[in-house]
UniProtKB/TrEMBL annotation:
Record-stated family: Belongs to the major facilitator superfamily. Sugar transporter (TC 2.A.1.1) family.
Matching Pfam families: Sugar_tr (PF00083)
Gene Ontology CC annotation, any one: plasma membrane
Coiled coil: none
Listed InterPro entries: MFS_dom (IPR020846), MFS_sugar_transport-like (IPR005828), MFS_trans_sf (IPR036259), Sugar_transporter_CS (IPR005829)
Keywords: Cell membrane, Membrane, Transmembrane, Transmembrane helix, Transport
Entry's localization field: Cell inner membrane
Chain ranges passing through the membrane: 44-66, 78-98, 110-128, 134-156, 168-191, 197-218, 274-294, 306-327
Name of the featured protein: Major facilitator superfamily protein
Organism: Escherichia coli
Length: 375
């Protein structure tokens, strides 16, 4: 049985095989890295993309909630900033802690736990009565997001075929931005004359988060992680179940390894660590400063059609992310990095459009270099 798959980007028609159905026992052996896309790949990609859409929504709604929270809770500028930025603090902690834990207990457990935490914390925002309550819950949401960012990308990369891996991983920025656009629409809908509308807006993020949590239940463990733990039989059983008995991992020589976080700063990896850290800091700081406070700024200056302005800016983000996907698929990653820098040098003379295209393309370039710089 064959069919189309939404993620068949390279002009081929990928297989849609449920588990190993339809695979003949005399099929020639093939490495998991060299497989065409099948239904299982699409499922993992959809779960990862759905998570990123939810992440964008969760982080986007806070900017609109702050409009009502400021008078309702008598927020000082400091407390408003803490509520707006607390999820980023949690994201930093979650990516470090849950990413490290996943190396020891497995990808699948954190893959599910991260969104269970996001679901519960998002729902509990409805009952928050003080700024401290919201800050604590937003930190928990951020911890879940950090775990999802570190484990979701890894799990998708470890299951994906080599040929499609780059574009699957890079598409996260497009999907994340769509979630942010949905947050803008929901924010304009919920923020009305009702002073308690912020509760419904923040808690609404629990619905897509719950759906992702339920769909992730039962996701198999990464066979590559199992190999590194020396659990060869389990790794091959998963590969045979979801891809067929003719599929080989090709990494049977891998043995269990335990590396300290200081490895990131070793002579071999410190340049990559610095490269990605600087890029994402430069991306996240202006992004969240602008978009967390954009609704408040629009209200303060009396912008009549704030929704249209917000959607236009977010549309630029989507265009930039799509542009990064296309260009990195056509261009060599290293060359594209330098081209993006050169284009960014003229961003000031071309206004906001060039700036947003630059940081989206640069972020995508950074992600590609992070995952594939050694290949």
């Amino acid at each position: 049985m064959t069919g189309r798959c939404l993620f068949g980007f390279s002009g081929e028609q990928p297989f849609l095989l449920p588990d190993n159905e339809g695979v003949k026992m005399n099929t020639s052996p093939v490495r998991m890295d060299d497989l065409p896309l099948n239904r299982f790949h699409c499922r993992i990609a959809a779960l990862t993309f759905g998570a990123h859409l939810t992440d964008g929504y969760v982080l986007g709604v806070i900017g609109y909630a702050i409009i009502q929270l400021t008078p309702a809770m008598q927020l000082t500028p400091f407390m408003a900033g803490m509520i707006g930025g607390s999820a980023l603090l949690g994201l930093f902690l979650g990516s470090l802690v849950l990413g490290w834990i996943s190396d020891h207990i497995g990808r699948q457990k954190i893959f599910t736990f991260s969104f269970l935490l996001i679901t519960l914390a998002s729902f509990l925002q409805f009952f928050a009565t003080t700024p401290e309550h919201l800050i604590g819950l937003r930190i928990l949401i951020g911890i879940g997001l950090g775990g999802d960012y570190s484990v979701g990308h890894t799990l998708l990369a470890e299951f994906s075929p080599r040929r499609h891996r780059g574009i699957l991983l890079g598409a996260f920025s497009v999907v994340w931005t769509v979630g942010y656009v949905l947050a803008s629409i929901a924010g304009h809908h919920f923020i009305s004359e009702n002073p308690e509308a912020w509760r419904w807006l923040l808690a609404s993020a629990a619905l897509p988060a719950l759906l992702i949590t339920l769909l992730r239940w039962g996701t198999p463990e990464s066979p590559r992680w199992l190999l590194r733990q020396g659990r060869f039989a389990e790794a091959h059983a998963i590969v045979h179940r979801y891809f067929g008995p003719h599929v080989l991992l090709g990494d049977e020589v891998v043995t269990a390894t335990h590396k300290h976080i200081k490895t990131l700063f070793s002579s071999r990896y410190w340049r990559r660590t610095a490269f990605n850290s600087v890029f994402f800091v430069c991306l996240v700081i202006p992004w969240f400063v602008i978009y967390t406070w954009l609704p408040t700024i629009a209200q303060t200056i009396g912008l009549e059609d704030a929704l249209t302005a917000s959607l236009m800016l977010n549309a630029l983000l989507i265009v930039g992310a799509l542009l990064g996907l296309v260009l990195t698929h056509l261009r060599h990653i290293a060359n594209f990095c330098w081209e993006v820098f050169a284009a960014g040098g003229n961003a000031g003379s071309h206004g906001l459009f060039a700036f947003r295209q630059f940081i989206n393309a640069a972020a995508f370039c950074s992600l590609q270099h992070h995952h594939f710089g050694s290949q």
